[in-house]
Amino acid sequence: MRDRFALIQQLGRALMLPIAVLPVAGLLLRLGQPDLLGIPFIAAAGEAIFTNLGLVFAIGVAVGLARENNGAAGLAGVVGFLVATQGAQALVRVPPEVVAGLTGTALDAAATSYKIKAVAKIGVPAGILSGLLAGGLYNRYSELKLPEFLSFFGGRRFVPIATGFAGLGLALIFGFGWPVLEAGLDGLSRAVLSAGDVGLFLYGLLNRVLIITGLHHILNNVAWFILGDYHGATGDLKRFFAGDPTAGGFMAGYFPVMMFGLPAACLAMYRAAKPERRAAIGGMLLSMALTAFLTGVTEPIEFTFMFVAPPLYALHAVLTGLAMVVMDVLGVKLGFTFSAGLVDYIVNFGKATRPLLLLPVGAAYFAVYYAAFAFVIRRFNLKTLGREDAPVAVVSTQALAEQGRGGGFVVALGGAGNIRTVDACTTRLRLVLADNRAVDETALTALGSRGVVRPNATALQVVLGPVADQVAGEIRKALTHLPAGGAVAVAVAVEEPAPATAPAPLPDVATVLAALGGTGNVQTVEARATRLLLGVADAAGVDEGRLLSLGLRGVARVGSGRLHLLLGGPAAPLADALTHAMARG
Questions:
Q1: Are 387 and 281 in contact (CB under 8 A)?
Q2: Where is the active site (predicted)?
């Protein structure tokens, strides 16, 4: 079950690579329109991307899923997509009524046109499936070794071949199964679109709820690229840019929330913060609010209260669903290529229906979010930014200058030995670790994390905002430049408020030393915030199970003879006790 969930999460991440292409497509398409620059070739360039979205998804999903995002998987995705769609086009049967009364060239043209339009309806799903096949086959067969006389076709060269044959299977399904697929797609579209405001409310609500797992991208792809049909353009987003006056309902409701509601939530959190903490959090909240207003990227804001204040997040999800309904009732149709921010609002203003109504609705949403968040935070004493009781970690400027941000993340993630894969989507790192219990969340917060999600024991997502992909690159670079021991040290200074309760008792020092293989096995002991950095002569002599039974939060092996013990509290007292015990022999 966990493996299936992890695969779905990987798909959600991989979908963001082709979706990142949409802003340039939408920008070119809009700038070329008569109401803006009126330059046909620019509009045609943008339209070309929308027309070939299936191919874009085939490449993007394949590369996003493949180990190290290898481009060979993208080539395999193209092969699979072309085989699947062209093969299906040849197999699709044309209904008799489509060609009734036609002969010769007219009959051939009508049949070909029907087949092209039929396959175009499933372009994006076919692209996603082709990308899934290509990425999966790359991960499985990219190191395949064949007999010497066939060795040229081994390894990565085998992947496009295998994907091509897999594409034949898709062609058979799409071609012979087209009547069933068409009926299913039309039935799904009619069911969702006929649900009206109820459907829109549920879509907005579920979209925010699924952000917790990162699966909202899959829900969005159904709404934006599959539902409905307007002269061959399917999906709310594609129909909007194709000129469908009924499209935009699955996008319009995001604008009041992202441009006005969440910035107001930031203001409410700032005003509710402790006076002595406002200066420290004000710049961060302002930056997140501006990012949401201008670009529609809201995850950094949402993760600041998603886990520490679940009632606020439930309220936010409900208000998002209501925004969908309000904009639909008012007849507002707005669209975007990236997200519901000011940039998309201005660029697509000319294609929208009643776009000026966003301003009064946005003002109302600003007031509602501010009042609701301010009341709920104070009424239930929620620990939003600036109201925390826990220590706030700050990575020293000197440490960052010496180690860099990538090195800081490596040690916060449990060291190089704990990191298996590093990927990123729009706003979050997506990592596979040996053990996510070895992660130091305090240090991650100091490095800019807005929150973490643990889908299972080895997966970890770190919400950073739009810099996530850049940080992923810095982590990979740090991993390739590690010293032989495999560890990177970063000094973390912790601002400790007066403890409200007595500190947790130390585990028995003699028992800890015994679990570490005895006094003679421990060579060095250092304290780093809530973890101990240990050097041992023989790592095999360390009993991890016994250490965990003493109440430690985790044990991470970060290189030959190097261990990190995660304590969940200040590490200095245990470090001092171990040092004294070792000195006594």
A1: no
A2: 425 (phosphocysteine intermediate)
Residue 449 lies in a domain: yes
Same domain, 4 and 81: yes
CA 462 – CA 297 distance, rounded (Å): 15
Residues 349 and 409 in one domain: no
- Could you tell me if 354 and 435 lie in one domain? no
Helical axes 53-65 vs 71-91, angle rounded to 10°: 140
* Residues 178 and 36 occupy one common structural domain: yes
Told to judge if 425 belongs to the known catalytic residues of this protein, a careful annotator would answer yes
In this structure, are 515 and 435 located in the same domain? no
* Structure token digits, residue 27: 């920008």
Indicate the number of domains in the chain: 4
Domain residues for the domain of 162 are 1-192
CATH code (residue 457): 3.30.1360.60
Residue whose pair of structure tokens reads 């071949």 in the numeric block? 161
Given 387, 413, 446, the domain boundary residue is 387
pLDDT per residue as tens digits for the range 214-240: 667 778 888 888 888 888 888 899 899
Q: Distance (Å, rounded) from C-alpha 538 to C-alpha 576?
A: 22
Q: Give the whole-angstrom CA distance, residue 445 versus residue 462.
A: 10
Q: Please indicate, yes or no, whether residues 453 and 357 belong to a single structural domain of this protein.
A: no
- Dihedral (CA of 77, 63, 127, 12) sign: positive
Structure tokens at 518: 């005895």
pLDDT digits (tens, 9 = 90+) for 47-58: 888 888 899 989
Q: Check pLDDT > 80 for residue 84.
A: yes
The alpha carbon dihedral of 117, 229, 337, 242 has a sign of: positive
Number of continuous H segments (helices) and E segments (strands) in the chain? 27, 12
Of 425, 471, 563, 577, the active-site residue reads: 425
Confidence grade of residue 373 (pLDDT, cut at 50, 70, 90): very high
